[in-house]
Amino acid sequence: MKQEGILRHAATRLLGLIPTLLVLITIAFFLIRVAPGGPFDSEKALPPEIRANLDAKYHLDEPLLQQYFRYLGQIISGDFGPSFQYKDWSVNELIAQGFPVSATLGGLAMLLAFVIGSLVGIAAALRQNSAADYSIMGVAMLGISIPNFVVAPLLILGVAVYAGWLPAGGWDWSWQRMVLPVVTLALPVIAYIARLMRGSMIEVLHSNFIRTARAKGLPERVVIRRHALKPAILPVISYMGPATAALITGSVVIERIYSIPGLGSYFVQGALNRDYTLVMGVVVFYGVVIIVLNFIVDLLYAWLNPRIRYDETQ
Amino acid sequence: MTRWKPIWVFAVACLAGLAACGDRDSDVGGPISRRPEPVEMVLLEDGQPDRAVLADQQVVRRGNGEEPATLDPHLAIGVPAAHILRDLFEGLTSESADGDVIPGVALRWNISRDARTYTFYLRRDLTWSNGDPLKAEDFVYSLRRAADPATAANAARMLLPILNAREVLAGELPVEELGVSLLDEYSLQITLTGPTPYFLGLLTNPIAYPVNRRNIEEFGEQFSRPGNLVSNGAYVLSDWVPRVEVVLEKNPAFREADRTIVERVHYYPVEDHSTEVKAFRAGEIDWTNEVPNNQFRWLQKNYPDELVVSPWMGSYFLGFNLTREPFIDNPSLRMALVLAIDRQILADKVAQFGEQPSFSLVPPGMDGYVPFVPEYADWTQEERNHEARRLFEQAGYSEERPLRVEIRYNTSENHKKMALAVASMWKQVLGVNTTLVNEEFRVFLQNREQKVVTQVFRAGWVSDYNDPYSFLELFRTGHGRNDYGYSNSTFDALLDEIGTERVRARRERLMFEAERVLMIDNVIVPIYTYVTKRLVSRQLRGWQNNVMDHHQTRHMFKLRLRGDPAAEPAAPEQPDEPVSAEEPPQAAAEEPAPEGEPEGQEP
Amino acid sequence: MSERTTPSVEDPFAQALAAADVPGRSLWTDASHRLLKNRAAVVSGIIMAVMVLLVVFGPMLLPWEPDFTDWDHTSSPPSLETGHWFGTDAVGRDLLVRTLEGGRISLLVGLVATLVSLAIGVTYGAVAGYYGGLTDRVMMRVVDIIYALPFMFFVILLMVVFGRHILLIFVAIGAVNWLDMARIVRGQTLSLKNMEFVEAARACGVDHNAIIRRHIIPNLLGVVMVYVTLTIPQVILVESFLSFLGLGVQEPMSSWGALVNDGAQDMESAPWTLVFPAVFLTVTLYCFNYIGDGMRDALDPKDRL
Question: pLDDT tens digits, residue range C174-222?
Fold first, then answer.
């Protein structure tokens, strides 16, 4: 029964992907086209003859609606087209090159944040309202309260420029170049997870079934590990869906300050340069990633929480 | 917890130390231990450095601004791509380290008496990096390709001096009609529409580089990828990871390979100036593309030997939209606004890096041209302010009836500071209420062009070639970048005359006259002339400052460090080059690509 | 609900107190008691009150205009002699005035954008939850779809397309944040609508709109307030992110985010331009978070067991 429910749910969700993507593509397509200026504007004025050649080459001389359907057709075949800005590469290639970088950094940051955040949160919850609780949460909160474009240059200055322990930026898939970006990415997430974890853990520890477990004389460690952990971690899991999506799709700030060739910058760069195909490609790709991640989180949630059933809604 | 402890210690220490950091001069300025001294440079008689002073590993790592748009020399736009292409390719003419035009693939050339026909005689034994011989027909093919509408090359506008180029670009004539003809295997002739003194300089630009026909026919649009690209310059493309690095290796087939010392060049795209400087300080790059805006004093104090500032052939100015109130037919008002700013303060305190206050359009030092200097240049600022107030009132404005005006600029730290400063000066001297409008680059360009909402706007120009005409033609009636709506028949007539004048002195006089007409009409608010500013490792020599800011790696070399054994075996601990392990760079948003060659965008 | 909250719109702490003052409901009295016992929240509240006063009245008391450029003291460090207690920026503007002025914008953006998302989210969620059935399913499907859109991108696109008017910043950020609110409110409404007093109202023939307005929304106030205090700091951070991209507020206006970003560029050469705005920003974010946490704890009935 439950199995079947989950399957049915999965099917609906995957079907739901299509209208969502269509809405996404349409909004993004027309929004970026409405933006003043075009991909070939530059401070060096272009003679009209050259302008016409460029427009013809990229089909920009066709009516907008025709371009829209041309684009839809293209996407269905899985081709995002050539980048207007980075002329030697196709958008598919750029995404294929940028996403693994962003995903690696984001994934590592999420892992780090999950482990540290949960531990810190649990530690604080077990000492609720003690000095230790306040100071742990105070430090964790620093992660939320200092913007990452301050944290990142500080880390570079301290760790790379003065201490010389790690490189200041750049990318070559070596762990040395991942440490600082991952830490910077993880800090605010650690803080959020720690807070969530602390809150839900406190709630769970006050609940009846934990009291029962304690009353049975189980040692505290066992109570926490065996009974409290699973329900307490649920809110963290549901937070992690969107958070992971945000992390692995790349952070413009981190990419810029650490000179990392991730996906986030492509969007901003593409939007500013009116690189229509690149913007669209990244937006569509993001949409898919977010939907898939939310879906995974749903499944995870259902697996962890026996009370959720997908056959009927409230 | 323990894993991130050191980081916290650092973050906290940095935060705590921050307040003190800035003034505690002496020990700031980066890790002294990693700023080793190079040995004295010793040049041999032929101008080449003595082998004994050279570092063992000749690898140069250059910060290069944005990711290059493409390495197809004809499609390339933007400064970053041009830097790389100058290393990869060589045109008919080339440039010396100090920016002078010198023979390139062409050994010599003849210019006809009417200055409209150039005959180039090529060196005979040159080859492409794939071994193909390099002949005159390669240039004919390449120039035609560059002008072909199907190529849709942005920079083809630079070919417009060539006969029939406009018609070919418009598709009205076949490419064969382009004024380029093959004379024999090793010579070709280019016919121009009129005398173009800067034509030899134009030929050093990527749009005029040869491309290998076989290469293009084999790989099509992907010919410019690593592994595919065939080039004829001092270097060949060895690797390119978008937004990570472009790596070039020395081309053994290059005609001067035995005089080319640097074996490998890494170009890192780093858009964030602060990041770039940090990478330089950490010893990861040898040459930055830029330095951050506000830090002149700090850099001068901490990196006096590395900070390199040099004039650049660009002007920074504001433009008036002459088609809109309050500036239509209002020369007194425009003059008042031109007078009321203190350029010395703007150059010294806002721009900071040694930019020269400017009173006219053309920067000094362009091919020997001496710019027009208006009378008020010699006045004190007090006198200027006084005259400004008089003119302001004459134009019908006063404290009670203040002028309201908008300064529009594209998003950039520098433009913002300059707009703020100018607004503040106008307010202090004339009581003008200025609104600042900051727009994203493309929006800004479009608004400028449409002339509907603009009043005063950020302008500026960095020339493609070393000739004042490139500045003056912007103000011709109907020019694509005449965003001022300026139209003066006297001025246009002067430009026409310049276009046909063959005698250098007379041409210069005409240009001077044109500039005078323009400045008297007060179409722009001149502010300063550009400089290039960067940090360069003291190990890196051989390059020279030049107004073009063109620096080919083949002129460069790296000095050995003091204390390194002068003998062959590579010292193990050279901070020199742990080879490809060191990449910095890559980055993101802020300023959109200044397309076109070095460009009014913010140097 | 609008009548109830408008008077204290400028000050979230006052808002919290005002809400806590709602008479005749033991839940609120209890909650305010608990809130006042939470030292971190109370101290944060006091600091925020001071901060708001400073930011609102401070610039009027200082001798410097925020756009005045002191050419004799550009990039000068904090000093009592020059009268620039926080130092000046690269064009000689007084940093203290700029920090306070920036605070106005940041807090305003935080509040207004949060209220925008609140207005959309509460209405949407309450309607969906109250009507239930097909309406609910369709409305929530729409939320699901929108959830999958990469929203930060749309904010950036909007800023690119329409320029950077401050109103647009409010709306853009607000429009990003309403989804969570809609979901939370819907959930609460679902459980509320079957309670006796709502049934009673319905039995008396009160129409749906009135029920939503008079019975459902006021009872959501607790959740909503917690959400508001926790959203404001997020919004302030989002604004600072836009400033980082150069898409923030228009000069000469500023915000803490913009100031911190400027300062971060020159953190070694002019550290004061980073430290002062950063301290203001950080303290504010801390305070809102503590107040939000405090209110959540105070309103959480489970603690009463």
Answer: 777 788 888 878 877 777 777 777 778 878 878 877 877 777 777 777 7
Q: Is the CB of B424 less than 8 angstroms away from the CB of C163?
A: no
CB of C185 within 8 Å of a chain A CB? The answer is no
Contact list, B21 vs chain C (CB under 8 Å): 267-268, 271
Which helix (H) or strand (E) segment holds residue B460: the answer is strand B456-462
Q: What is the pLDDT of residues B560-596, one digit of tens each?
A: 888 766 544 444 444 444 434 334 444 333 333 333 3
- Residue in C71, C250, C274 nearest the CB of B345: C71
Report pLDDT digits (tens) over C99-128: 999 999 899 888 888 888 888 888 888 888
Question: C145 touching A, CB under 8 A?
Answer: yes
Q: Does B73 touch chain A (CB under 8 A)?
A: no
Quick check: A20 and C286 CB within 8 A? no
pTM (predicted TM-score): 0.86
Q: Does domain B309-531 correspond to CATH entry 3.90.1570.10?
A: no
**C90 reaches A (C-beta below 8 A):** no
Nearest CB partner across the interface for B411, out of C246, C272, C275: C246
CA distance B241 to B238: 10
**Is A20 touching C (CB cutoff 8 A)?**
yes
B147 Cβ contact partners less than 8 Å away, ≥ 6 residues apart: B153, B156, B159, B162, B165, B168, B169, B175, B178
User: pLDDT class for C25, splitting at 50, 70, 90?
Assistant: low
DSSP-assigned letter for residue C250: P
Q: How far is CA C127 from CA A313, B376, C136, in A?
A: 18, 70, 8
Q: Count other C-beta atoms under 10 Å from residue A204's C-beta.
A: 20
pLDDT in tens, A37-92: 888 887 777 778 888 888 888 888 889 999 999 999 988 888 888 888 888 889 99
Q: Does A172 touch chain B (CB under 8 A)?
A: yes
pLDDT tens, residue by residue, B2-42: 333 344 444 444 444 443 333 333 344 444 445 678 888 78
Paired sense of beta strands B264-268 and B59-63, if any: parallel
A149 touches chain B (CB under 8 A): no
* Pair of tokens at residue B301: 């104090």
Q: Which chains form contacts with chain C, at 3 or more CB pairs under 8 Å? A: A, B
Assess C91–B contact: CB distance below 8 Å, yes or no.
Answer: yes
The predicted-structure confidence for B401-417, as pLDDT tens digits, reads as follows: 889 999 999 888 889 88
End-to-end CA distance of chain C: 30
Q: B599 and A265: CB-CB below 8 Å?
A: no
- Which residues of chain A make contact with B268, given a CB cutoff of 8 A? 170, 259
Taking only residues 313 to 342 of chain B, the set having a beta carbon closer than 8 angstroms to any beta carbon of chain A reads none
Q: Where are the alpha helices (DSSP H) in C193-255?
A: 196-203, 208-211, 217-244
Domain ranges of chain B: 309-531
For B16, residues 6+ apart whose C-beta sits below 8 A from its C-beta are none
Which of B70, B281, B284 minimises the CB distance to A88? Answer: B70
Sign of CA dihedral C112, C114, C119, C120: positive
Mean pLDDT computed over every residue of chain C: 78
ipTM above 0.95, yes or no: no
- A23 vs C241: CB contact, 8 Å cut-off? no
* Cβ distance of B34 and A268 shorter than 8 Å: no
Record the tokens describing residue B320, joined without a space. Answer: 């008036």
What is the distance between the alpha carbons of residues B217 and B500, in angstroms, rounded to a whole number?
39
